[in-house]
Structures are given as structure tokens and as C-alpha cells.
Amino acid sequence: MRGYEVSKGQYVKFEDAELEALEAEANRSIDMREFIPIEKVDPIYFESSYYLAPDKGADKPYRLLADTMAKTGRVALAQTVFHNKESLVQIRSVKRGLVLHFLFFKNEIRDFDAIAKGEGVKLPGEQLELGMSLIEKMSSADFEPERYADEYRERALAMIEQKVEGQEIKAVAPSTRRTGQVVDIFAALKKSLESAGQQKSQTAERGKRKRKA
Q: Which domain does 65 fall in, by range?
């Protein structure tokens, strides 16, 4: 027996057969609803992504959809059935192919207006300028995912390799994160800005030495 809490301690009960009757009929279709500019979809709605490939005999419509969306700069909003549940998806053209993104429904997104954001805080102009300088110094023109590594996965693979080689595994406790400490954001920004400046200076100096060599 399963139930849904309608009020404190009060549940509406469901039989398994009743829940099964709610499930959508499984199919492989994707029902297109509308086409919109990609920038109109807030990334908060994105849940997961999948590559799409054409079924046998569907190469032409696949190619037509991918090319026309690429030329118009628009994405498709559609609905499909996944795991016996209707799902909202976005389809976009990527590298002459199609990528499907599962989206959250509106009711699955918490209202951000209900979250406190420190609206009463007034920031001095000096701190804003410091923050802007930090962002400028640490900015890049492109997103390069290869610059970031899954450190947990790397540690796990290293441990697996040690076990394969018959080495003793020594567990190292992760450093404990202190809580309750008030952080001076201004000082942290200033330190980060100085560090970013030093790193760029060192990179420039190494570049000069290479050119001289």
C-alpha cells in the first residue's frame, strides 16, 4: 500500500493497480510542441542529456531537423514517455547531430523568490570594483571542460590499481571542514585577485623566456 500525505498525518492510500493505471503507455515517439530560441530556457530546468540517433530509414528527417534548427538558432520543446512517465524534453542541434535534454516541469522547480538572498546588504563600491577585477583577471573566452578533472574518480581508479597490484590500501581521512567561521569576503577576494595576478605574471614571464630561447 502506498499513500500521499494531503495534510499532517493524513494520507490518501493507493493500490499498486491504481498507480499502474496512471502510467503512460510506453512508446518511442517524441511529440514536438514548439520551437524557441535556446537562450530562453533557463539552465535550472536541465536534468540530463542524451545523444539522439536516427532509426532505420529516418536519416532524411533527422538531417532536416538538425540542419534547420542550426540555421534558425532555435531548439524544439517536446514531450515523450520515459520509464512510463511523461517527460518534458528539449532537442537542439549540436555538431550536425541532435541532443536531447530532459527538463524539469515548472512545478518541480522551487520558487527562487522564496529564498533569502541578502537583499538588505549594501556593498561598498571598493568591494564591487575588487570583485569585478577578480572576474576580469580569471575570465576565459571559452568553456574548456578538459581543464577540470573528476578527482574522486581519479582517486578511486588509483585505489583500484593498487588493489590489482596487491598493494596495501591506506585510507586517508579527508580534511574536516570547519563550520561556524565568519569569512571576510573582501579579504578573500583581495587574496584571490593577488594570486590571479601572480599566476598571469609567471605565465607571461615563462612565455618571454621561451621566446628568447
A: 2-108
